[in-house]
Amino acid sequence: MMAATEYKHVDRPARWDCTADITVVDHAGRELFARLGNISDAGFMAEAEETVLVGSIVSVELPDRGEVRAEVRWSNGWRFGCLILAA
């Protein structure tokens, strides 16, 4: 058990700030306007006009990457984070 003052380091890919406008196609086929907040080799964080469902698979056109499918891993209000799935 970790003491209250100990911190566990979580190794994760580097992220780059990004403010590109994107369209997210959600699990129900809705096209939602969104804006990227950051992007990494493994995923991205964005803010959409409506909430998205955690666990759902979305399709999005990312700058310099093209169209990708991603799994929504977390959601907090209109912000959400995705793991990009292998093609």
Briefly say what this structure is.
The protein is built from no helices and seven strands. It has 87 residues and is mainly β. Strand 5 and strand 6 form a beta hairpin.
Structure overview:
The chain contains no helices and 7 strands. It is an all-beta fold and 87 residues long. The chain has a single domain (16-84), classed as predicted glycosyltransferase like domains (Thrombin, subunit H), CATH 2.40.10.220. A 6-stranded antiparallel beta barrel has the order 2-3-4-7-6-5. Strand 2 and strand 3 (31-39) form a beta hairpin. The mean pLDDT is 87.
Per CATH, the architecture is Beta Barrel
Average pLDDT metric: 87
CATH homologous superfamily grouping: predicted glycosyltransferase like domains
- Biggest sheet strand line-up: 2-3-4-7-6-5
Query: What share of the residues does DSSP label as strand, in percent?
Result: over 45%
Overall SS class: mainly beta
Tally the beta strands: 7
Q: Remind me, CATH topology?
A: Thrombin, subunit H
C-alpha termini separation: 39 Å
Tell me the name of the CATH class. Answer: Mainly Beta
The dominant shape is globular
Characteristics:
7 strands; mainly beta; Thrombin, subunit H
Secondary structure layout:
Blueprint: E1 16-17, E2 21-25, E3 31-39, E4 43-48, E5 57-62, E6 66-76, E7 79-84
Antiparallel strand pairs: 1-3, 2-3, 2-5, 3-4, 4-7, 5-6, 6-7
